[in-house]
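Reviewers asked in the last cycle whether our approach scales beyond single polypeptides. To address this, we selected a multi-component target totalling 230 residues and predicted its structure end to end. The input consisted of the following lines:
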Amino acid sequence: DTAVSQTPKYLVTQMGNDKSIKCEQNLGHDTMYWYKQDSKKFLKIMFSYNNKELIINETVPNRFSPKSPDKAHLNLHINSLELGDSAVYFCASSPGTSGTSQYFGPGTRLLVL
Amino acid sequence: AQTVTQSQPEMSVQEAETVTLSCTYDTSESDYYLFWYKQPPSRQMILVIRQEAYKQQNATENRFSVNFQKAAKSFSLKISDSQLGDAAMYFCAYRSARAGTASKLTFGTGTRLQVTL
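The resulting structure, written as structure tokens, was:
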């Protein structure tokens, strides 16, 4: 059974398009995250939700909008895609907000042409 | 803000030998957690080991162990009896344990480990 899953795994699209990445976890965790890994492999937090409530919103362009319909799902919608959005996007989850380990999904490689 | 530094972009080890990956961090907090994650070519981020700052005992997980030096803000990962499957990028990460803080991980820039025959 997959613990944290993301769809799609690969996404190739044109500049200016709007796209969504979905994330689901079946671990019963309360907290979910989106991280971005750039071409130099650097990982940085984008958003975090706890029980469907936004608790972390780093300095991310407002073209990026997370949505958490329930605590098992955290989707990422990106409007007006730009070349610089090309990266690997990781979803993660943890049982709570403090002190617990985070478990990552397999990542979604986004390529904007 | 906390920072995590991995000063070794690449390391190489022979199969069955031992290798140590370095990590230092900067924080003004006294309570926090430290992690090592492994990212093989499959891209999956795999939790290798975790250390609570309030624990003096170094964490171990099978062939993986850490050397946690709180005063020096150092958190190195030792891999014993290296195997070909250990080849990957290794990321050190920090997480605050302060109540009420957001729970994000702050990552280092990673160390690429090669394992040779």
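The longest strand of chain A covers residues 43-50. We regard this as preliminary and will revisit it once experimental data from Aim 1 are available.
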